[in-house]
Amino acid sequence: MTQIEFSSDINVKLVRSMASDDMVVQAAQVSAKGENNPDTVPQRLINALVADKHGSPFEHNAFTFFVEAPLFVFREWQRHRISSFNEMSGRYTQLLPKFFVPAEDRSVVSVGTSMRPAFEYDLEALMDVQGVLNHSAIEAWEHYQWMLDRGVAKEVARMVLPLNVYSQMYWTVNARSLMNFLSLRSSQEGAAVPSYPQREIQIGAEKIEEIFKELMPCTYNAFVANGRIAP
After folding, report:
1. Active-site residue, from 158, 176, 185, 228
2. Which of 42, 72, 92, 129 has its CA 20 to 30 A from that of 9?
């Protein structure tokens, strides 16, 4: 039987980018002056754009990420339709023998509400969850392989696999949409509107935020200073 891998990782890698604060400045100034003003202070202008919700200048930047995560994370991620996705196809290729299990520090017992979720740590409950997920993944993968060996189409055989099976995708997004993603999928102090993302997608958002911060520092600082609300 194929060796099955269990993981708690959400993997994000920047593939390429066309991202700079300077492009935001140029896009903003062409509306009023038709050319870039060398005397402009980028942080001041960008902060004004974010504060006043002038969002279109931030659409002239692009990031392409390679993301590896379980299906239940992708189904939340792909709700952000103001971006582009290409995901591994379970119709055309055999999916990966890799399954997500919660990390050792994951709180899994619900103590909140559906609108304001909150969790508490319970080691016994976590171990039970890990055990059930491991068992169901192994059984599902065996059934998946059995159907493929019988010549069943991949698009049919994949129906047996659970939502914690890993997939891969390319995600291309502009800076404005990326800020919208971060505002909803990350929970940080200083946010004007609190967000309650599932921990697993938040891990991915935190990794993306570090890349955004490095490539577009003025835009990132304005985003944080204005309550983490996308313009």
Report:
1. 185
2. 92
Backbone angles phi, psi at 21, to 5 degrees: -65, -35
| Whole-angstrom distance, CA of residue 110 vs CA of residue 7 | 22
DSSP state of 69: E
The residue type at 55: G
> pTM above 0.85?
yes
Write the pLDDT tens digit of every residue in 108-158. 999 999 889 999 999 999 999 999 999 999 999 999 999 999 999 999 999
How far is it, in rounded angstroms, from Cα 193 to Cα 24? 25
* Residue of 226, 200, 212, 211 lying closest to 9 (CA atoms): 200
Please confirm, yes or no, whether 185 is among the known catalytic residues. Answer: yes
Q: Which of 173, 175, 196 shows the shortest CA–CA distance to 185? A: 196
